[in-house]
Specification:
Helix content is about 10%, strand content about 60%. It has about 140 residues and is mostly beta strands.
Length: about 140
């Protein structure tokens, strides 16, 4: 009880607090900031190009097939690209292609045979690391 009486007396005699304005004592100034950011990106790009069909052609003169048939039978094939990717397709069986002979031995002739098959035609693998660094310097000048 004694303590409460002492606090009441102290509070009764206290004056109200008054604010005093604060006036800056400088007339001008500056502030400089410096910021650096570095970003590192690792990219793995893999591209696989496929030929999905085939082309077989024969041309010339003075030649003929020995069997009369000019078509080539098809067969299935596949290719393991990596541990997770396997490509499969149908291609011509070039071991069973027709054979050709010269019509008149000793005479002139031309013969052109061309085959372009399906499958993987190109694999591109790009593994790169890109580092980007950004530096920003800012200066602010101010005065009263």
């Amino acid at each position: 009880m004694k303590n409460l009486l002492l606090i009441a007396i102290v509070l009764a005699g206290a004056n109200a607090a008054k604010a005093v304005p604060v006036v800056p004592s400088f007339s001008m100034g500056s502030m400089t900031t410096h910021s650096e950011t570095t970003q590192e990106t690792t990219e793995l790009i893999r591209s696989v190009d496929y030929n999905t069909g085939w082309s077989y052609s024969v041309s010339g003169h003075g030649v003929e097939t020995t069997s009369g048939d000019i078509s080539v039978p098809a067969k299935s094939s596949s290719f393991q690209i990596d541990s997770e990717t396997k490509a499969g397709w149908t291609q011509l069986d070039m071991n069973s292609k027709p054979t050709w002979k010269q019509v008149t031995p000793g005479q002139s002739f031309t013969f052109v045979e061309s085959y372009s098959g399906p499958g993987v035609s190109n694999i591109t693998s790009i593994d790169r690391r890109v580092t980007t660094k950004s530096v920003t310097d800012t200066t602010s000048i101010f005065q009263r």
